[in-house]
Design the sequence.
């Protein structure tokens, strides 16, 4: 259903659909939840505001409507309301996190069915769409200066959230978490001579991954060959020709750290030089329709290849040296293993795995799922690298290298 159009004012959108406010703020509409600010800028139409920011309005409106649809249609088990909170007791299990937008609703529906069949489980959770971003989770983790104040289960992608010392890293070092999924070996796609995704320390578990692949606009290639590897993409001929999902922090961070680890600092600099513009993935699949600043290659989540039209000049390329992955982590508290185990087994089980892999194109770690990727490679930093390095510092260095080398 379409709720929002480009001719509506910012004020009208915020008043009618407050669930869009966080997304609007993340896209540069600062302080719109402040009454004085919204009264000043609120009379501007969305179309004019986006034009000033040089953002594609059609795609932006689609995203806003998706957020409203997800919020309005969301199963009422995101149990975060005051009534449920009042009922919390020492037996209540708490869960927080982000779910990939394309599969959030079917995952919530599956969770509802699971809880109906296991009514002895007292679960209170807040699972937002990934478009909300990680900031609210980070704030909660930072405020939780003691393990008891942390939620019992966390689900999300994000290197910085899970490895930064001031965030989850400090709790990992205290051995707060334990993989209680019961899965001994991950899916063969993530357990072979090229990759081992399972945490050897048994602290963190995963549900699947978000792979980053190339979308190539053949109409813009000219004499250049289609890039088949990340190394190809970093060649001088692709300078100022690439779109990156910078606003998708989890995936962007994963791309940076995988390129840094695999190809070094110079590669991150070259990636910065290649940047033409920052696009949301749903804009990327339409980039062949842009009239100017047309990217030749866009780096995007594998899921969005489903939106490519048959008559489009766009073709999807899974990098031969591997799709950079942003793992979907699940953290469960060790001292509550007995209470959490049934939920952990469900979330890492076949039903959720099929939703992730078959509906969302987010390959599952469950060994019984056919991810339909036919042996394609993944670019993964590896646990040794994560344990031997300060991931937070490396990410900060990567961003500095990248943004310092963007050609204006």
Sequence:
């Amino acid at each position: 259903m379409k709720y929002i159009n480009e001719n509506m004012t910012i004020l009208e959108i915020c008043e009618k659909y407050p669930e869009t406010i966080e997304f609007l703020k993340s896209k540069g509409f600062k302080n719109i939840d402040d009454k004085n600010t919204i009264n000043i800028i609120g009379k501007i139409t969305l179309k004019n505001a986006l034009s000033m920011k040089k953002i594609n309005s059609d795609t932006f409106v689609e995203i806003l409507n998706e957020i409203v649809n997800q919020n309005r249609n969301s199963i009422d088990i995101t149990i975060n309301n005051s009534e449920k909170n009042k009922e919390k007791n020492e037996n209540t299990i708490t869960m927080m996190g982000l779910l990939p937008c394309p599969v959030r609703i079917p995952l919530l529906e599956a969770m509802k069915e699971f809880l109906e069949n296991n009514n002895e489980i007292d679960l209170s959770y807040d699972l937002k769409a990934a478009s909300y971003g990680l900031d609210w989770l980070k704030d909660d983790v930072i405020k939780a200066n003691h393990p008891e104040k942390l939620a019992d289960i966390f689900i999300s992608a994000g290197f910085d959230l899970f490895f930064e010392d001031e965030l989850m890293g400090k709790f990992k070092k205290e051995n707060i978490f334990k993989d209680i999924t019961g899965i001994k070996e991950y899916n063969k796609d993530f357990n072979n001579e090229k990759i081992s995704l399972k945490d050897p320390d048994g602290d963190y578990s995963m549900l699947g991954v978000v792979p980053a692949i190339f979308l190539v606009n053949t109409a813009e290639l000219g004499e250049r060959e289609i890039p088949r590897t990340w190394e190809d993409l970093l060649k001088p001929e692709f300078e100022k020709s690439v779109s990156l999902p910078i606003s998708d922090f989890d995936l962007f961070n994963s791309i940076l750290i995988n390129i840094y680890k695999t190809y070094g600092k110079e590669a991150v600099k070259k990636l910065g030089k290649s940047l033409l513009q920052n696009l949301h993935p749903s804009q990327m699949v339409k980039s062949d329709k842009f009239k100017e600043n047309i990217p030749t290659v866009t780096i995007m989540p594998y899921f969005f290849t489903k939106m490519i039209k048959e008559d489009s000049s766009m073709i999807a390329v899974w990098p031969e040296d591997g799709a950079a992955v942003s793992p979907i982590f699940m953290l469960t508290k060790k001292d509550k293993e007995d209470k959490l185990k049934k939920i952990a087994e469900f979330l890492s089980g076949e039903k959720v795995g099929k939703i992730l892999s078959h509906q969302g194109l987010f390959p599952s770690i469950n060994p019984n799922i056919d991810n339909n990727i036919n042996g394609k490679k993944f670019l993964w930093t590896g646990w040794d690298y994560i344990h031997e390095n300060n991931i937070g510092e490396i990410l900060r260095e990567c961003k500095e290298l990248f943004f310092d080398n963007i050609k204006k």
